[in-house]
Amino acid sequence: MRAVLLLLIFLSTILCADQKLKVIRSEPVFAEIYESVELKDCYPESYYERGGADALETLLGASVGALIGNQFGQADGKTAATIGGAIVGGSLASSKKQKVVVDRCQTKVVQMPKKVIVGYQNYADYNGVEISMFSKEPLEFIEIKSGN
After folding, report:
1. Which candidate, 40, 43, 45, 46, places its Cα nearest to that of 106?
2. DSSP 3-state of 9
3. Contact 70, 82 (CB under 8 A)
């Protein structure tokens, strides 16, 4: 009788004890999140701007204008045409335009999907039945708690 009682106590201890089961595989669990990404869109843009001519260009234009103006008119009219030609030639030389090309950029913020690991599903065998448990990191063992 005493041997049977000791056997029952020993078996209940084994059956009610916590068990550690070896994990046979751990699979990552993913979630899709969206993150903001800046995209830069650039394109060339051109325009003309009045370029400031240097003094030599203005003087050269005035001289050419005076030579041309001197070909017209007589007496006082010739002087007026020469002065008028110098003014027009200097003005044209100083008002030249130059093409300017600049890059214009726009920054756009878009939401891009990204997969991230949120944890692991760990699998083990418990008396021929596959059990699983979720955790933040892969496990080596799954602990089975007794019902006590």
Report:
1. 40
2. helix
3. yes
Choose among 56, 79, 49, 53: nearest CA to 66.
79
Residue 95 sits at φ, ψ, to 5 deg, of -105, 25
Complete DSSP assignment for 50-101: E----HHHHHHHHHHHHHHHTTS-STHHHHHHHHHHHHHHHHHHHT-EEEEE
pLDDT at 56 over 80: no
Name the 3-class secondary structure at 148. coil
Taking the C-alpha atoms of residue 99 and residue 101, their distance in angstroms, rounded to an integer, is 7
Mean pLDDT along residues 118-126:
96
Secondary structure in 3-state letters for 89-129: HHHHHHCCEEEEEEEEEEEEEEEEEEEEEEEEEEEEEECCE
Q: How far apart are CA 97 and CA 109, in angstroms?
A: 38
The structure tokens listed for 43 are: 């394109």
Choose among 112, 119, 113, 115: nearest CA to 139: 119
Query: Would you say residue 15 has pLDDT above 80?
Result: no
